[in-house]
Amino acid sequence: MSYRPCIGLEVHAQIQTASKLFCSCRNEFGAPPNSQACPICCGLPGVLPVPNVRAVEQVIKTGLALNCEIAPFCRFARKAYYYPDMPKNFQISQYEEPLTHDGSLDLDVNGDTVRIRIKRVHLEEDTGKLIHGTNQSFVDYNRAGMPLMEIVTYPDFTHPDQIRVYLHTLRDILRYLGVSEANMEEGKMRAEPTVNLIDDETGAATPLAEIKNLASVKAVCDACAYEIKRQQAALEDEEQMERQTRRWNDEKQITTPMRVKETSDDYRYFPEPDLVPMVVEQPWIERLRQELTELPHLRRRRFVEQYGIPEYDAEQLTATRSTADFFEQAAAKHGDAKAVSNWVMGDLAKMLHDHKVALEDCRVTPDRLAEMLDLIRDGTITGKIAKDVFARMFETGEAPAAIVEAEGLAVISDTGELEALVAQVLAENQDAVDKYRAGHKKTKGFLVGQVMAATKGQADPKAVNQILDQKLEG
């Protein structure tokens, strides 16, 4: 029998809101333990949850971006299980009646289009956090009740490459929409794959294995690749397998058993009695649809078609919404999209990285960058001088023209002055002149460099080359 991998993904993303899902506690990180917890968070008797409308809207926006149906009627459910970091001993989630369902996301994977079906995108609350010491454990309920979005796919993945592209694409979508920071390394997005192997001819299948403890996109892909090999080897050895939840060991690059995997019946789902069913009316959906921004993969394609830039440039420029917006504003003002792209991906990105500054806090605006590129294009400054001007702009936010004037950085194009400088360089480098005239034409580049160095890069390169040609050939 020939088995193929069959992988589904559950992705939990922390939703960006001011407060938690069912109470007014702050939705923030880094506060002292248990300082952002209230009777509702802790499930004390007599309290009632109230849904956060902003969190509901963030899920609807995500559902729309993933081509999902928005349910006109949905209901919260109780998912019952015991764990020390969950004070109520149940989690408020959605199951049979989710907020959004039946969507899809098309991926470009190694030149092929792969469609991943989205089963549902729904709301649920997060649990607390356990902190384990040597002889004791502590629980912090600050995270309990924070709004989570769960994005569940059908088991449409057949290769880890598809998972990698999906997670990067989904992360970019969530960031563009402003619904989540979606940073796996910080725990703001978590992915849990479910892996098994299926024989399409007979319908035979290995038991499902859900994998946890995955802290990066790479870890998810590596864990799935290992699990596929593990199950294939078990089939070949006729090893008995069971439905399991397994833990990924990143150091050893293996999965290990945690427990027998639960089924939905084990969670005893039933409608949440403290929350009324939610009605989502069409005008509300249409208002949120109008608020959607252009999604990153669509913007990436448009950049290539509209601006004629390489796909690599478009991918880098659309990595974040702020970078894409910056590029478009500067390109609209300057006109040469490729020149703008080079500076945004090069000098601007390097300065932001070296100084640990976010683009939103950068003193160089799109208009200022465009003005500097205009100075290069009209010959006011050279590309080399532009780097010094840009560094000053980054530091002070001054206009490039003002910096050029104040520092005396304009290109030297006075013919008389340049002729005198060329004559001086030729006199000081007679060996190079003799080599040039003996047929070593590459020596001219050295002489040009000497003139540019003498003027600190301010000489007009075109004029310098013309004068050198006259002197050397004369």
Describe the structure.
This protein is an alpha+beta fold and 474 residues long. The protein has three domains: 12-194 and 261-284, no CATH class; 309-407, no CATH class; 415-473, Arc Repressor Mutant, subunit A (Orthogonal Bundle). Helix content is 41%, strand content 20%. The chain has 15 helices and 16 strands. The protein has helices at residues 53-65, 160-177, 217-236, 282-291, 296-307, 311-317, 321-334, 337-355, 366-377, 383-396, 400-407, 415-428, 430-437, 443-454, 461-473, and strands spanning 4-14, 69-70, 73-74, 77-80, 90-93, 100-109, 112-125, 129-132, 137-140, 147-153, 189-198, 209-212, 244-249, 254-260, 270-271, 278-279. The chain has a nine-stranded mixed β-sheet with strand order 2-6-7-10-1-11-12-13-14. The protein has a three-stranded antiparallel β-sheet with strand order 5-4-15, with no helix packed on it. Helix 7 runs parallel beside helix 9 and helix 14 crosses helix 15. It is elongated, with a radius of gyration of 30 Å. The N and C termini lie far apart (83 Å). 35% of the residues are buried.
